[in-house]
What we know:
Layout: H1 2-9, H2 13-19, H3 21-27, H4 33-49, H5 54-88, H6 95-113
Helix pairs in contact: 2-3, 3-6, 4-5
Amino acid sequence: MNEVMQREEQISTADLITKHPADAEAARPLLAPDFVSDLRSRWDQIQTSFVDEPREAVKQADELVASAIKRLTESFAGERENLERQWARGEEVNTEDLRVALRKYRSFFQKLLSV
């Protein structure tokens, strides 16, 4: 019994991803890291500019939020379109792909509601 437990304890997170690639897909960030980095950098500039140009800073903040929302919308729409193309061609979309898609929606929805 102890040997079995020791073997189970010797698993890494990389092993988990290898064994469950769909779960790794669902856990991916909603936005690309380079895009997030750019958003943060732009936000810092906007926040700094508020002292001298408050109206312009608010305008730029609105544009930045709109840009982030647009990118999120495009990401979800692209995935939906991919599934719909498969359905339109009469292809079966496997349940695992649908489960991953639903998990991504659920994750986003929960994050949205916790804001």
